[in-house]
């Protein structure tokens, strides 16, 4: 099969390097009839997708196998898509520049609910039928994974395979079964899907029937036969020191969102914030050893030429060997001006001495996430931080020369009142006051306090999965309250668009009935909804009206504990009983301690291996 000729159109689009595919450390293989072709598809533009660690891991993992050729596929930007459609060029793999319609698998990562129409648009641009039931034996098998895959039901009618949990082992198992069955003359997709359904971490939506009550909620979810498991259990990796991790990563031609080495130090989180989906679905905690990280760093720097390392995890300051690791990196690479980034620090467990050492190489601001303005509400969400933690931290920071601080909050949290919002204003003003109470010769110049307020969106497998999203009117009122309260030359206030949060909430807790909404949304031009310049809320509302579906049923309705939720047939290891207990404790403001201190009985140690449990 020949490479598609895109030479002429590249002169007419922005950033043509997005579509070249010959970067350092990319793979190029000879393709024959025995080659299993896998497209790792990211439903956003190149700069976003190339910053995704999961893509780098699976891309190199699969390409280490002689019989597998994994290529990257990104959503083309609007200008490129227009040129491709005008010139009848189908969506292609970056490496071979051949149509993805002829691949064996297309694996989409689900990072954000507002990317769903981009997935459908990519299938359409490739010439692949959207609905799984309409695809034939020659079409690729459509696979999805990632955090949003823990409730894949809005996409269930479009996908063949859902990967639940950590993908390194299970993806290879699925491909191996496919390779063995594909050799048979009587190969059928339906037989293959039935064969892999019992594999831990594999969910085949077409093998489950969903019934609904007349008034709306789900009545039952049941497998089509006894060979299909009633519950699908996520897959986890037991030992992170033994699992594959790339020793080289692709180095893009152009700047990306995270243009650096991402060094994963551990998976999971023990903190138990009640709004946080990642903290629940990625349990248990498993760490990489110091020696393994030391070795990976040396090889990644040598093989890429990058000058910055980001120590990646949900809460990097919780890594038990952080001090030892950072000091090693500084001692070893300071002479080469290699910077170190710690993207997720908690107020209550990091030392400024360590941060000061990092700042010698490259200066950065400080980011703190109190999440809520009052102690009462921080206890409701189980944040485990106090006002003193914040004020002590900023006082120390200003005395050591920092002058730029970012504060992250959420609005619309369960039980929130305007007194809690007053607390956001008060905390921000106390940070400003703290700067001016610091001796002039010690503090840095040019104070800049940035306050960001995102909107709480209830997510599956969290203690708040039953809670309603605030109405748009309530969100607007709270945002205006903060805009008025944070009028200061020293404070910059940013807030998230309420309408995108509304749509995110709809699809985050949606069911299969939303498939017709997504399909119709694509028909009328809904795509790149995570980008404000492309998001059209009124267009979406018309789509819901046409489909006779009330989006408020999914976004603004409180669920009862006994309601069957669209994701109840999926098991992430954290029990529903635990989530109910945590929801009840939230109502009384009762804290649950860090799992490293005392087991909270979440259920992850029942049947799962590895981790501190």
Spans of 5+ residues with little confidence (pLDDT < 50)? none
Strand residue content? 5-15%
Query: Measured on Cα atoms, how large is the radius of gyration?
Result: 25 Å
Give me the side-by-side strand order of the main sheet. 2-1-3-4-5-6
Q: Specify the overall morphology.
A: globular
What percent of residues adopt helix (DSSP H or I)? 25-40%
Distance between the termini: 51 Å
Sheet with most strands: 6 strands, mixed
Determine the CATH topology of the domain at 14-233.
Answer: Rossmann fold
The beta-strand count equals 19
CATH homologous superfamily designation of the domain at 14-233: Cobalamin-binding domain
CATH domain class of the domain at 14-233: Alpha Beta
**Class per helix and strand makeup:** alpha/beta
In the CATH classification, which architecture of the domain at 14-233 applies? 3-Layer(aba) Sandwich
Give an overview of the whole structure.
It comes from Alkaliphilus peptidifermentans DSM 18978. It holds the Pfam family Radical_SAM. One of its GO terms (molecular function) is catalytic activity. InterPro entries: CHP03960_rSAM (IPR023862), Elp3/MiaA/NifB-like_rSAM (IPR006638), Radical_SAM_N2 (IPR045784), rSAM (IPR007197), rSAM_horseshoe (IPR023404), rSAM_sf (IPR058240). It is built from 20 helices and 19 strands. With 613 residues, it is of the alpha/beta class. It has a domain at 14-233: Cobalamin-binding domain (Rossmann fold), CATH 3.40.50. Helix 9 (290-304) runs parallel beside helix 10 and helix 13 (387-399) packs parallel to helix 14 (418-436). The termini are far apart. The model has no long low-confidence stretch (mean pLDDT 95).
């Amino acid at each position: 099969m020949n490479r598609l000729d895109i030479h002429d159109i590249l002169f007419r689009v922005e950033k043509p390097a997005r579509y070249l595919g010959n970067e350092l450390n990319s793979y190029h293989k000879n393709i024959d009839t025995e080659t299993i072709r896998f497209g790792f598809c990211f439903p956003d533009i190149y700069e976003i997708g190339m910053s995704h660690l999961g893509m780098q891991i699976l891309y190199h993992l699969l390409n280490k196998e002689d019989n597998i050729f994994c290529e990257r596929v990104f959503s083309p930007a609007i200008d490129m898509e227009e040129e491709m459609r005008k010139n009848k060029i189908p969506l292609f793999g970056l490496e071979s520049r051949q149509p993805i319609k002829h691949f064996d698998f297309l694996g989409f990562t689900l990072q954000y609910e507002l990317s769903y129409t981009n997935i459908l648009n990519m299938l359409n641009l490739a010439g692949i039928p959207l609905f799984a039931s309409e695809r034939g034996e020659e079409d690729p098998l459509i696979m999805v994974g990632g955090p949003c895959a823990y409730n894949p039901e809005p996409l269930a009618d479009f996908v063949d395979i859902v990967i639940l949990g950590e993908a390194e082992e299970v993806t290879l198992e699925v491909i191996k079964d496919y390779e063995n069955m594909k050799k048979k003359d009587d190969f059928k997709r339906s037989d293959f899907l039935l064969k892999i359904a019992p594999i831990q971490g594999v969910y085949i939506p077409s093998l489950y029937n969903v019934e609904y009550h007349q008034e709306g909620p789900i009545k039952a979810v049941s497998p089509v036969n006894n060979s299909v498991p009633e519950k699908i259990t996520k897959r986890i990796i037991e030992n992170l020191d033994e699992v594959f991790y790339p020793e080289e990563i692709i180095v893009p031609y152009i700047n990306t969102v995270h243009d650096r080495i991402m060094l994963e130090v551990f998976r999971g989180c023990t903190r138990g914030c009640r709004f946080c989906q990642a903290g629940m679905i990625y349990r248990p905690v498993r760490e990489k050893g110091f020696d393994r990280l030391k070795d990976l760093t040396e090889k990644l720097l040598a093989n890429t030429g990058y000058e910055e390392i980001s120590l990646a995890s949900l809460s990097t300051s919780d890594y038990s060997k952080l001090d030892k690791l950072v000091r090693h990196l500084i001692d070893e690479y300071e002479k080469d001006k290699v910077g170190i980034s710690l993207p997720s620090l908690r107020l209550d467990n990091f030392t400024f001495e360590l941060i000061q050492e990092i700042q010698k190489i490259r200066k950065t601001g400080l980011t703190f996430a109190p999440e809520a303005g009052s102690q009462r509400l921080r206890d409701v969400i189980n944040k485990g931080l106090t006002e003193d933690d914040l004020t002590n931290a900023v006082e120390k920071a200003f005395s050591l020369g920092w002058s730029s601080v970012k504060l992250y909050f959420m609005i619309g949290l369960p039980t929130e009142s305007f007194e809690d919002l007053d607390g956001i204003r008060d905390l921000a003003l106390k940070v400003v006051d703290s700067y001016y109470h610091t001796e002039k010769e010690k503090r840095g110049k040019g104070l800049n306090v940035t306050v960001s307020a995102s909107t709480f969106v209830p997510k599956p497998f969290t203690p708040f999965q039953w809670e309603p999203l605030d109405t748009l009117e309530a969100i607007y009122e709270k945002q205006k309250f903060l805009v008025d309260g944070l009028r200061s030359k020293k404070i910059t206030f940013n807030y998230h668009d309420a309408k995108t949060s509304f749509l995110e909430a709809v699809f985050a807790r949606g069911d299969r009935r939303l498939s017709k909404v997504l399909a119709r949304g694509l028909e009328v031009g809904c795509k790149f909804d995570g980008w404000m310049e492309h998001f059209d809320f009124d267009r979406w509302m018309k789509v819901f009206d046409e489909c006779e579906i009330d989006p408020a049923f999914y976004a603004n309705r409180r669920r009862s504990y006994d309601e069957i939720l669209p994701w109840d047939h999926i098991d992430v290891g954290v029990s529903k009983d635990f989530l109910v207990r945590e929801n009840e404790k939230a109502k009384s403001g009762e804290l649950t301690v860090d799992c490293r201190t005392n087991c909270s009985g979440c259920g992850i140690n029942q049947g799962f291996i590895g981790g501190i449990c």
